[in-house]
Design a protein that fits this description.
Layout: E1 6-12, H1 16-27, E2 33-36, H2 45-48, H3 80-93, E3 100-101, E4 106-112, E5 117-122, E6 125-135, E7 157-159, E8 173-177, H4 181-193, E9 196-200, E10 207-208, H5 217-225, H6 227-242, H7 245-249, H8 256-269, H9 273-278, E11 291-292, H10 296-300, E12 305-308, E13 312-315, E14 319-322, E15 327-329, E16 332-335, E17 350-351, H11 358-363, E18 381-384, H12 396-417, E19 419-424, H13 426-440, H14 444-447, H15 469-475, E20 484-488
Parallel strand pairs: 1-2, 1-6, 2-3, 4-17, 6-18, 7-16, 8-9, 8-16, 9-12, 10-11
Antiparallel strand pairs: 4-5, 5-6, 13-14, 14-15, 19-20
Helix pairs in contact: 1-12, 5-6, 12-15
The structure holds NADP nicotinamide-adenine-dinucleotide phosphate (NAP).
Length: 499
């Protein structure tokens, strides 16, 4: 479709979060909805991360919409192509594909307080929207490491989320920089094809076993025919994962049994005590994202792999030089160094009531929102996967569905009560975040002895939710008008309520 000039609801992006928004608004009879997607197809992070071994580390039964369960998952942890197929088919089945303007990027969005609308500039033209539904969190903007000489490297160099499939890796000397969730999936795959593989580790991660299994045809048929069975699987997995919450948010020592399991995984995978010592983590489990793999440690122990723990001093045209002066020749560099998670590029493009961007608003105190979903000074902006809505133990889809329920209720309320604009009050947002940050003090993310992408430059955790996910869902069950400044429509042509 082509971009219209006016729309009730403009949704930016078409990953899990924004697909859910489009589907649920349509269910409520909101017909004037347009999605803009900067790529040529839906999928978000699951479209972008095509690296070898890309796989979900949350069980598939839970990593799917509650209203579109998928009995066709072939295994308990789905590989990227299956998740991408799932998202494509959901987008098609629920008519979102037809509402999406592809290859279109949001360049700038400014709240017009007179008109009570968002005036948006996109790469495909201008559009005026009554509400703007955007993602401000997430893992979409690759972060390259700030390494001396990186630009001088002459061979292929790419980020894990921008895999260059045209590069032939067979027999090559490959370097992987990073040992996070992406790297530990990539390394076992590259080990099988590389002539030599150097893995550059800054911090050894916790890696627990991945209890993966394939679903036999019979089991899939049962899941297809008996929806209650699929629901039961999902519920069981949900509560099993929720069991991590006390250890992560309240008493990190409760993670000790999982730490023992991870150390057994390490002993099983690596026999050499020197290598094992290098790969042993020195912080509390959960402080960084807990990784799951049965193949990472055996890959590190392979004869064509070296785990390099000396820090990188510089990169030259054809090598990586470490702090001890050793030059490691390399043909291909894979950068698995994560994403911009707390200083989000999109925040610079969204400008609120006072003419300040989200990035400017958040520069001093870090990202913050009310209930992770609305922001004081930015009326009618809904941030899905917004500040403090992430979690390190379960499916983000659960949080997304909770947020979308809140957005639906907000839009319903606007329609029914004739409000043209809703904006959380400053005091409500302040109280919400003060409570969150108080809760954050005793979490493993703040006390576990590590630095992670959950923390911003000031050391504030503005990414994760510090309680159970059902508490989040309960807190967002209803749009709480008492926390909002509610504006009725002003009498000019563009100032109609959402209705
Ligand atoms: P990440 O977890 O942020 O890991 C980045 C890695 O790069 C870390 O090991 C980090 O070391 C290292 N690093 C960063 N800058 C460096 C530098 N200048 N020099 C050397 N090393 C450097 O990124 P990611 O692995 O892409 O994963 C990001 C998130 O994506 C995950 O936490 C997870 O939520 C998600 N993810 C999910 C799945 C899934 O299966 N669902 C799969 C992949 C990713 P330090 O630890 O020392 O900082």
């Amino acid at each position: 479709m082509t971009l219209p000039g006016h729309v009730d609801h403009l949704i930016v992006g078409a990953g899990f979060a924004r697909l859910c928004a489009a589907i649920k608004l349509a269910e409520d009879g909101e017909t004037d909805v347009v999605v803009i997607e900067r790529a040529g197809e839906v999928g978000g992070t699951w479209r972008d991360n095509t690296y070898p071994g890309a796989c979900c580390d949350v069980p598939s039964q839970l990593y799917s919409f509650s209203f579109a369960r998928n009995p066709e998952w072939t295994s308990s942890y789905s590989p990227q192509p299956e998740i991408q197929d799932y998202l494509r088919s959901v987008a098609r089945a629920y008519g979102v594909t037809d509402k999406t303007v592809f290859d279109t990027e949001l360049e700038h969005a400014a709240w017009d307080d007179e008109g009570q609308v968002w005036r948006c500039r996109t790469s495909a033209g201008e559009v005026v929207a009554k509400t703007l539904i955007s993602g401000t969190g997430g893992l979409s903007e690759p972060r390259l490491p700030d390494l001396d000489g990186l630009a001088t490297f002459r061979g292929p160099l790419f980020h894990s989320a921008r895999w260059d499939h045209s590069v032939d890796l067979v027999g090559k000397r490959i370097a992987v920089i990073g040992t996070g969730a992406s790297a530990i999936q990539i390394v076992p795959e590259l080990q099988q094809v590389a002539g030599h593989l150097d893995v550059y580790q800054r911090t050894a991660p916790w890696v627990i076993p991945r209890n993966d299994r394939r679903y036999p045809t019979l089991e899939r048929a049962a899941l297809r025919r008996v929806p209650a069975l699929a629901k039961l699987y999902r519920t069981g997995i949900y509560w099993a994962h929720e069991g991590y919450v006390p250890a992560f948010t309240w008493q990190p020592r409760l993670g000790a049994p999982a730490e023992r399991g991870a150390l057994m995984n390490l002993r099983k995978g690596i026999k050499d005590p020197v290598l094992r010592a290098k790969a042993t983590p020195h912080f509390r489990l959960g402080c960084k994202r807990v990784l799951r793999s049965n193949t990472y440690y055996p890959a590190l122990a392979s004869s064509n792999v070296e785990l390099v723990t000396e820090q990188i001093a510089r990169v030259s045209a054809d090598s990586i030089v470490t702090g001890d002066g050793v030059e490691h020749p390399v043909d291909v560099i894979v950068v698995a160094t994560g994403f911009y998670t707390t200083e989000l590029p999109i925040a610079e493009r969204i400008v609120g009531r006072a003419g300040r961007s989200l990035a400017e608003e958040w520069a001093a105190g870090g990202m913050s929102a009310y209930k992770g979903t609305t922001v004081h000074g930015f009326p009618n902006l809904f941030t899905i996967v917004g500040p403090n809505t992430g979690q390190g133990h379960t499916s983000v889809v659960f949080m997304i569905e909770s947020q979308i329920a809140y957005v639906r209720d907000a839009i319903r309320t606007m329609r029914e009560q004739g409000y043209a604009a809703v904006e959380p009050r400053a005091d409500a947002q302040r109280r919400w975040n003060a409570n969150l940050q108080r809760r954050m003090r005793r979490t493993v993310w703040n006390t576990g002895g590590c630095s992670s992408w959950y923390l911003d430059a000031q050391g504030r955790n503005t990414v994760l939710w510090p309680k159970s996910t059902f508490t989040f869902r309960r807190g967002l069950a209803r749009f709480d008008t008492q926390a909002y400044d509610l504006q009725v429509a002003r009498p000019t042509p563009e100032r109609e309520p959402v209705a």
